[in-house]
Amino acid sequence: MIAANFILIGVFVLLLAIGTPIAVALGLAGAAAVAVGLDLQTVAMIGTNTYTSIAKYPLIAIPLFILTGMVFERSGVAGRLVTFAQAIVGPRRGGLAVVATLVCMIMGGMSGSGPADAAAVATIMIPSMMKAGYPREFSASVIAASASTAILIPPSIALIVYSILVPGMDLRALFAAGLVPGVLAGAAVILPTLILSRRHDFGAQELAERPEFWKSLWQAVPGLLAPVIILGGLRSGLFTPTEAAAVAVAYGFLVGVLIYRKMGWRDVWSVLADSAETSAVIMVIISLAGLFAWAGSTLGAFDHAAQSILAVSDSGLVVLILVMAVLLVAGMILDGVSIYLITLPLLVPIAIAFQWNLTWFGVLMAMNIAIGQFTPPVAVNLMVTARIARVPIEATVPWILWLMLTMGTAMLLVILFPEIALWLPKMLGYRV
């Protein structure tokens, strides 16, 4: 068993080091460990367990929310949200950067995906920010950090995965718990953005006139209603999270095809194909990560690792800081869904041992991973925005450090005051 556990971790780390895709690394490591450590009858269960990992009804919500995000991106919703946000913020130093953050937060309430959010907003906002005098590196940094709030603001794909992997977890409570920390994270991006813009005189060439408020609001209403429909339907019990995803898709096509009329039948086919491709990648990762998790649980690797961490200190705070440090490093390298899939079999026993609230812990993980999404060297959100802005990732570091500091402060507040995350689901009557 010890040799098999070493193979499980060693093969996975080795394959990642040589650039193997995360899904392949997870699957091969799990299969190799099972082949070495278990009998032939158990080895025959590899295929079954790989399939079982994705044969779960709640997972249907993931491809549907991905499709929702793409529909709203292609239908022109983002552009109208930008105009509406400009009408709210008005012409001021740092105004366009604040607009970018607000639009990222609203779009996050449609797609649940940070990289998708970053791509949609960066494509629209970076050219405008450059004309207004913002450096490319600064613009890419702000949008990458703002898009990371999508992992917190419902419907978060990562929180859906967390609810499936943690027994007895109420997804509605998770969604509610992520909302206030998500807004707090957005504020943590806006504050340094305004300070830095004023200090360096960014945005000196912004438009002197603000768009007409009521006209821009009217045009943005169909997009603004999407999060309301999703969260309102969940709160009222009208539909489940999975059904909410299906309703969101139908509403998205209604807006894109009939209201905004930005999408023809060819566009619909393109959106379906692109979302299917993205969903397939995520589902392959989930299925092979399920094999990895099954191998680690069966061989006892996660139990041994959990006991080792628990042996470090009797203090829950010390262990939590250690866990957060590990997750931050992981967030710099991997995407949020993969981190949940890989680490939860290890971290849930630790959380239970210290009697941490699992809803709070799930949101705390999400905040940590959100920071990792715009922290080099990999930083999936920053990769997207830097490519659109045509700047190297290393050029964004001076600005990213400020955003990491303020976002880290927001996370520290949630650690010290768990009710920031828990009061809303409690007020709504959800079990936390």
Automatic annotation (TrEMBL):
InterPro entries in UniProt: DctM, TRAP_DctM
Primary subcellular site in the record, as a coarse category: membrane
Membrane topology reported for the UniProt record: Multi-pass membrane protein
GO cellular component terms attached to this protein's record: plasma membrane
Superkingdom: Bacteria
Membrane-spanning segments: 54-72, 93-112, 141-165, 171-196, 217-238, 244-260, 280-302, 308-330, 337-354, 396-417
Gene Ontology MF, one: transmembrane transporter activity
Residue span(s) of domain TRAP C4-dicarboxylate transport system permease DctM subunit: 9-420
Keywords associated with the record: Cell inner membrane, Cell membrane, Membrane, Transmembrane, Transmembrane helix, Transport
Subcellular location, record wording: Cell inner membrane
Entry keyword Ribonucleoprotein: no
Stated family: Belongs to the TRAP transporter large permease family.
Quaternary organization: The complex comprises the extracytoplasmic solute receptor protein and the two transmembrane proteins.
Function: Part of the tripartite ATP-independent periplasmic (TRAP) transport system.
Listed name of the protein: TRAP transporter large permease protein
